[in-house]
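Collaborator request log, item 7. Partner lab (contact: R.S.) asked for a structural prediction of malate dehydrogenase to inform their binding assays.
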Amino acid sequence: EKEPLRVLITGAAGQIGYALAPMVARGVMLGPDQPIILHLLDIQPAAEVLNAVKMELIDAAFPLLQGVIATTDVVEACMGVNIAIMVGGFPRKEGMERKDVMSKNVEIYKAQASALEKHAVENCKVLVVANPANTNALILKEFAPSIPEKNITCLTRLDHNRALAQISERLDVPVGDVKNVIIWGNHSSTQYPDVNHATVTTGSGEKSVRQLVADDQWLNNEFITTVQQRGAAIIKARKLSSALSAASAACDHVHDWVLGTPKGTWVSMGVYSDGSYGIQPGLIYSFPVTCEKGEWSIVKGLKIEEFSRKKMDATAKELMDEKSFAYSCLK
Ligand code: NAX
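Returned to partner:
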């Protein structure tokens, strides 16, 4: 019997939290034999809803779930956690300036960084989901200097999964047979979904997605904008932003980070840039990564042609602007 792992979900009374907590409790994130203690954090106005989520988790009688701590106290929430999924944040409301939203989130992430640094286990792995995800992760990293930078990541797996899904639909092949798309850069509409190295497993071996689709016009235009705009399309149709797909992607991200990526397969993660592919160090940028023994490494040596280069640089530029803007919001 394994020791239970403590998984923190912030913003747990929100819609992603409601989808994510049961997935974690069922073993989707850390495996079917890994007992879990859930730490659920939200703010005071959501305390009653948060408690209802706890009641439902108890009522679901998940065999792996060995405890639920639901709290509005950030110190209690962070105490001893092994994995921290940061979903809580301040949403942009109508009529709000971008600066006001950024200031609020910068403050939240600064405070939560300190709490994690002081109270989480030493090797705690952090996944930031709340937007602006890359920049929130960067703020968290800067204000938790004792957490290794390798342990702080942000979610672009939803974009990665959306790209796999678009290819699967287009070619009418199972999504599990499509692999090695890449999301480069920011989790925003400037992200660059790249299929130049993507393949499909077929009866006669691995085939390149570009060859199978045989329509560069579609791949270089509609495919890219569909993935970039998918979040907006969900909001338009659902009147709410993506929740179940975001929760599932968060599980995939942590699952592969902790348990490893299959041989020959990479995934996309927002990680601290080491300067790979000419991306300025000091940004949290989405790269193709493989994971082994709980550590990610950026896939090196992929050939980048002109079309990709421009798009990778444009999204890096947006991240640099966001970074300086976030700093200008710090009091
Ligand atoms: P909700 O508004 O439903 O939930 C957010 C929750 O966070 C609320 O319950 C709120 O009370 C709580 N919260 C606010 N401040 C907090 C604080 N200081 N500490 C703890 N909790 C706090 O939003 P939801 O739809 O769940 O989305 C959550 C975040 O994920 C948003 O920032 C959203 O933009 C972001 N997303 C990121 C995605 C990604 O791929 N990286 C995709 C999905 C999603 O849009």
